[in-house]
Amino acid sequence: MSDVGGVAADQLRSLVERIERLSEEKKALADDIAEVYSQARSQGFDAKILRKVIARRKRDAAELQEEDAIFSLYLEALAFDKTPLGAAGRVAAE
Amino acid sequence: MSDVGGVAADQLRSLVERIERLSEEKKALADDIAEVYSQARSQGFDAKILRKVIARRKRDAAELQEEDAIFSLYLEALAFDKTPLGAAGRVAAE
Amino acid sequence: MSDVGGVAADQLRSLVERIERLSEEKKALADDIAEVYSQARSQGFDAKILRKVIARRKRDAAELQEEDAIFSLYLEALAFDKTPLGAAGRVAAE
Amino acid sequence: MSDVGGVAADQLRSLVERIERLSEEKKALADDIAEVYSQARSQGFDAKILRKVIARRKRDAAELQEEDAIFSLYLEALAFDKTPLGAAGRVAAE
DNA sequence: TCGCCTGATAGTTGCC
DNA sequence: GGCAACTATCAGGCGA
Predict the structure, then answer these.
(1) Residues of B from 5 to 64 whose C-beta is within 7 A of strand E: which are they?
(2) C26 vs D93: CA distance, rounded Å
(3) pLDDT single digits (tens) A20-57
(4) CA B24 centroid distance within chain
(5) Which of A77, B63, C23, D11 is most buried (most C-beta within 10 Å)?
(6) Measured between CB atoms, which of D7, D8, D76 is closest to C5?
């Protein structure tokens, strides 16, 4: 019997080792990324801005359309800009 | 009519303002806490350890007995060292 | 002598209690905020979007101008769309 | 000339793409890890405890002795248990 | 109802 | 030593 204190030790060990292995690889990639940022900096780029660009591209890639529709609606309701008619038009389209 | 694009603007504005007000107070408290940590540091205390002490007290207040039991069990199953009983003792004592 | 094991116990206790007290108040405020979101939901608002609106207002309030200048520059360099001037305008407006 | 608005577009694009590529791989690994936790759960393991075990193994690998020493000291100073003399004895041993 | 997923928070680390 | 970014953990909402 492989149980130790009621725990299937072999299964547990396997799970732990897989997680630790994957975590190491993940850590290695994080280091690689840091290295690229380091290179960027040495080429004169601003790493902080670079991060923003990448974050922006990621957000842009994602689909925010439906959310944005409601979002805009709320913003407009708050008189976030001075053109509420734009909002009315979009609402009418619903 | 207070609706703007189908949204009850007044209600919305009220909600947003209440949340923002509460958030500011919350932020002020967070700053106060940071200030206390700062004082602690100037009195020679190690803020990192202090955080651990407080987190521990919080956890102790809650129930973590059962968790620890399973925890010890898992650690033993992994035969983390060659004196499993000693390990269990140390874990329980932590 | 108030030292216990070389630690000024009274000072430490005072610090810990102040932090715990402030943390409780902070927690109470967090609960208040959650309550407002709950009310919002019962009034038909989408809490998720509401959070986004508030986050957006917060970001807007902060100063992103200088960063945005470089940001736009980078975006244009990436030819993020085929109307770089339009892109720059949109970014600046964000 | 490859500059766009004073930015070396080719270099920038290369950097961005490398980072995005590495980030995707990193994300994939994070998903793999989540999958292992999922399997663990389906085998009856408590994922939360499992995380603690792994974190513990990681910390054990590192050095945390000194921290623990101060930590215990602080806890004792707070009279966390009802045997302060035991604490004094341990301190005297230092 | 349970597990997933996102957003919030706390802790850690590295830079300045 | 403070600050800011990143990571990890946690909780609450959401959907199957």
Answers:
(1) 26, 30, 48, 51-52, 54-55
(2) 41
(3) 999 999 999 999 999 999 999 888 888 887 887 888 78
(4) 20
(5) A77
(6) D76
